[in-house]
Amino acid sequence: MIYLDNGATSFPKPENVYKAHDYAFRNYGANPGRGGHSLARECARVIYNTREKIREFIKANSTREIIFTSNTTEALNQGILGVVSEGDHIIISKLEHNSVWRPVEWLRKNFKIELDFCEHDKEGYIILEDLERKIKKNTKLVVINHCSNVFGTMQNLSAIGQITRNKGVLLLVDGAQSLGFEEIDVQRMGIDMLAFAGHKGLLGPMGTGGLYVREDIILKPLKTGGTGSKSESPEVPAKGPERYESGTMNTAGIYALGAGVDFINEQGLDKIKSHKLNLLKRLIDGLEGIVTFYGPQSLENRGPVISFNLGDMASTDVAFILDTVYNIAVRAGLHCSPLAHKFFGTLEQGTIRVTPGIFNTIEEIDILIKAIKEIRES
Ligand SMILES: Cc1ncc(COP(=O)(O)O)c(C=O)c1O
C-alpha cells in the first residue's frame, strides 16, 4: 500500500521507534511513580527522559512544563477546560479541528462562555488586526491551529504570540500537524500552551501526545486520581506534570516517542520539511489543471497537508477508488474540521487530503498522479 494519510497518524514509523517500543514493553514493565523499587524508579526515569527530549525540542524552560496525554484531543481539552471559567471570552480560528471547536462550544452551552472567531484571508491566514481588535477585557484564551489539517495553512505564531502577550491573554496552539515539521520555540514565540500529537509528526506510537503548559499557569485538572505522590491528600498535586497525569502512564509508548524525537533530531527538521514539501510540489505540478487545489498558493507557509477535489466527484468516491483499485490510502470527507470546510466552501463535497510522510517517495506521488488522471478519464 502507498500510505499518504500521515496527517491522521504517521506510518510506517522509523525502525528505532519499533525497537524502542518492543524493548520498553519487555524491560520497563513496572508502574512509574508507583512503588520505590528499582524497576519502578527506572520506568519513571524513562518517562523523564522523553519529557526532557520534548522540552528541548520545543525549547521549553523546564521538563515540569511537559505533560503527557494520550493524544492531542486530550491535551487540547486539558488546556481549554483547564483555564476557562464562567463569563470568560475565548477566540478561536475558523480552521479549528473538532477537538477545539467541540470543547469551546460545550463551554459556551454549559458555562456562559463567550466565543468569537477571528477572520482569515482567502488562503486561510489569520488577519492579525482582526485578532487584536477582537480581544476584549474578559478574553481569557486564544486558540489557534498552527497548521490546518485540511488545507495546510500555517499561521505566523510569532506574530500571534506577540499580540496575545501584549494584550495579556493566554495563547494555546494546536500543534497536531506542525510538530516534527516546523521548528517551534514556545518561549520566543510567546506560546503559553502547546498541544501536540506523539503519533503524527513526532513519529511515536498511537496513544501518545502531550501539552506544554508554562510553569506559572495552573490548570484545573481534567481528571484526578492516583499520581503515586502525596497519596495522603484528597487532591492531586498542586503543580504539573503530576497534577495532570493521574493514572498509569503509557511507559512503552512514551519511551518510543522519545525514539521518534531522536530520529527527527538525527535527520534534522530542515531535511524533513524540504522532503515533504518536494512531494507536495510534485503533486501540485502533476495535477495542475486537472484537480482543484485549496488553501495557500505558495509552499512557503504551508504545512505537509494538501487538499483537492476532482471535478464534482464526491471526495469519498475518489478515495474509495484510490484505496480499492490502486491500493493508495488518502483521507476524504470532512477531516473532523467542518469549520475549515465551511470557510473554503467544501462542506458538501469534502476534500481528498494527501499528507505525505518522511518515508514517501517521488515515485509514489507519481503513481498517485497517474491514478487520479485515470479516474478522471474513466
Ligand atoms: C489539527 C488537529 N488537531 C487535533 C487533532 C486531534 O489529534 P489526536 O488524534 O491526536 O487526538 C488532529 C487530528 O488529526 C488534528 O489534525
Automatic annotation (TrEMBL):
<dbReference type="Pfam" id="PF00266">
    <property type="entry name" value="Aminotran_5"/>
</dbReference>
<keyword id="KW-0808">Transferase</keyword>
<keyword id="KW-0663">Pyridoxal phosphate</keyword>
<dbReference type="GO" id="GO:0031071">
    <property type="term" value="F:cysteine desulfurase activity"/>
</dbReference>
<comment type="similarity">
    <text>Belongs to the class-V pyridoxal-phosphate-dependent aminotransferase family. Csd subfamily.</text>
</comment>
<protein>
    <recommendedName>
        <fullName>cysteine desulfurase</fullName>
        <ecNumber>2.8.1.7</ecNumber>
    </recommendedName>
</protein>
<dbReference type="InterPro" id="IPR010970">
    <property type="entry name" value="Cys_dSase_SufS"/>
</dbReference>
<dbReference type="InterPro" id="IPR015424">
    <property type="entry name" value="PyrdxlP-dep_Trfase"/>
</dbReference>
<dbReference type="GO" id="GO:0030170">
    <property type="term" value="F:pyridoxal phosphate binding"/>
</dbReference>
<dbReference type="InterPro" id="IPR016454">
    <property type="entry name" value="Cysteine_dSase"/>
</dbReference>
<dbReference type="InterPro" id="IPR015421">
    <property type="entry name" value="PyrdxlP-dep_Trfase_major"/>
</dbReference>
<dbReference type="InterPro" id="IPR015422">
    <property type="entry name" value="PyrdxlP-dep_Trfase_small"/>
</dbReference>
<dbReference type="InterPro" id="IPR000192">
    <property type="entry name" value="Aminotrans_V_dom"/>
</dbReference>
<feature type="region of interest" description="Disordered">
    <location>
        <begin position="223"/>
        <end position="244"/>
    </location>
</feature>
<dbReference type="GO" id="GO:0006534">
    <property type="term" value="P:cysteine metabolic process"/>
</dbReference>
<dbReference type="InterPro" id="IPR020578">
    <property type="entry name" value="Aminotrans_V_PyrdxlP_BS"/>
</dbReference>
<feature type="domain" description="Aminotransferase class V">
    <location>
        <begin position="2"/>
        <end position="368"/>
    </location>
</feature>
<dbReference type="InterPro" id="IPR010969">
    <property type="entry name" value="Cys_dSase-rel_unknwn_funct"/>
</dbReference>
